[in-house]
Design brief:
Elements lengths: L1 H19 L11 H15 L26 E4 L2 E4 L21 E8 L3 E11 L2 E10 L2 E12 L2 E8 L4 E9 L3 E10 L6 E9 L2
Antiparallel strand pairs: 1-2, 3-4, 3-10, 4-5, 5-6, 6-7, 7-8, 8-9, 9-10
Helix pairs in contact: 1-2
Length: 204
Amino acid sequence: MMMARSVAGILLLTCFISLACAQDDYLDPSNGGANRAAVEEIGGAMQSDIFNIGAHSGIASTTPQGSRAPSGVVRLGGQQAQMQQSQVPVAASSTQQAPANVAGRWRLEMADAASRSVELALYQSEDAMFGRGIMTLGNDTQEVAASGSALGNKLVLDLVSIRDLSMFRLLMTVDARSASGNYNVFSASDPGARSGSVRGRRLA
């Protein structure tokens, strides 16, 4: 469009210069016919297609009239680019059970090939358990350390004997006053694992 206007301006300026350079009698009022011819020449030039910016000028909008880009689509350089909606991940909600309160003094009765009893003092910090106690087997007693964790009413508790390097891993279900479950025995002197059952009651 700018180029068309420039060409039109040059053509118009050229016509006026031609009039200025003509003979003096060309502008004489008595030569009205010549003047009218010049004006008609200029008018004809103004009606040329070069002054008409439209369907025949070769210049058109990149977006057709009356058309509208569909929702979610933008036009870039005459081409359509689909806009991607951001996917907001939805965090999966998980409900974790609060650990049971097992802190206090317990007495555990354990039975496998032999029968044992444990007087145990347990401490608790959220789901972590720890403590110590005395394990009795017949006339033999030894001190054990306790550690474990709770999830809901499920308790995993390890009782470790330092003297003979053995560990009792207890898997129990607990409530306010009692506990029951099973255990496995691991010993440095006896590689074979043993298993047994355990029942417990809260003393305080």
